[in-house]
Every structure is written in C-alpha cells, then in structure tokens.
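In this supplementary section we document a worked example of the pipeline. Step one takes a protein sequence of length 164 as its only input; no multiple sequence alignment statistics are reported here. Step two produces a three-dimensional model, which step three serialises into structure tokens for compact storage. The input and output of this example are shown verbatim.
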Amino acid sequence: MEINKFNELMAKYWEGTSSLEEEDQLRSYLRTSEGSSKYPEEAGLFGFFNMQKDIGTSITAFPIEKLAEQEEPKVRKIISFTNVRNIAAALFIVLGALTVWNNYISPSTPETIACAGCIEVDDPKEALRITKEALAFLSNKVDKSERILKNNIAKLSVNKILKK
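The serialised model returned by step three reads:
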C-alpha cells in the first residue's frame, strides 16, 4: 500500500469517517509483515482490537431459564423525610419567633416597661461619671471584638487564596 493512501485511510479512521471496507483494508495491510514493520504502533493497535474481538463473554452463555425460575425481588418503599424536615424547620422558626416576642419585644410586667435595671442619679456630675464609665466599658468591648473580627477575616481571606 502506498504511504499516501495509508495516511489518508488513517486520517479518516481517526476522524471517524472511514467505512468498514477502508478499515478492513487497514487491518489487512497492518497484518502483513510490510505494514507491521513500517507502522508498528498502528499494527499493535489493530492487533489489540482483533484480540479483544475474539474474547467471549459469559453473558451470552447465561441460561435465560434461570431468570424465569427466580422470584421477583421484594420492593421496599423508601420514605422521604423532606416533608418531616420542612415541618420541623417551620416549627423551629415559629418557636424561636415566639421566644423572641415574649422575652424581648413585649415585656411581661409594667415595671420593666418603665425602667429595666435603671439607676436614678440626682447629681449631674455623678451621672456624667457613670455614663463615661459605661461608654468606656462598651468601647473596650467593641475594640476587642473588632480586633478579633479583623483577625478572623484576614485568616479567611488567606484560606481562600490558598485554596485557589
């Protein structure tokens, strides 16, 4: 076989456009000593395909009568828990909302409406001192939580960069 014709047939084969007759020509040429010496990779590939074609399977030898003798498998009903999960989530949300409503939004006694933990101070200087202490306390807590939050955000961004 000419080199140009062989290359043309192989190109068609790799593109998937070759006919069965062209593939038979390739197969028969690669079985010859000339074809297998010039093109050992292609000869090995077609030889492998030829070996695989000759391998039998036990599926064709399986007796169909045995299938008829077997009893049908028992079908078990699969229970879907999606509805149960949805109902549980709805109840959780409703109970959470009721808890928030009872404890934070609607106080239970009139005394808590008037003043919840209030301290009445008549001296303006003492009131200013107490207010400054309270603001300093809050400022310290906010600073600590802000530092912790910035540190955690920095760790998260480093982790995202490392994962990419």
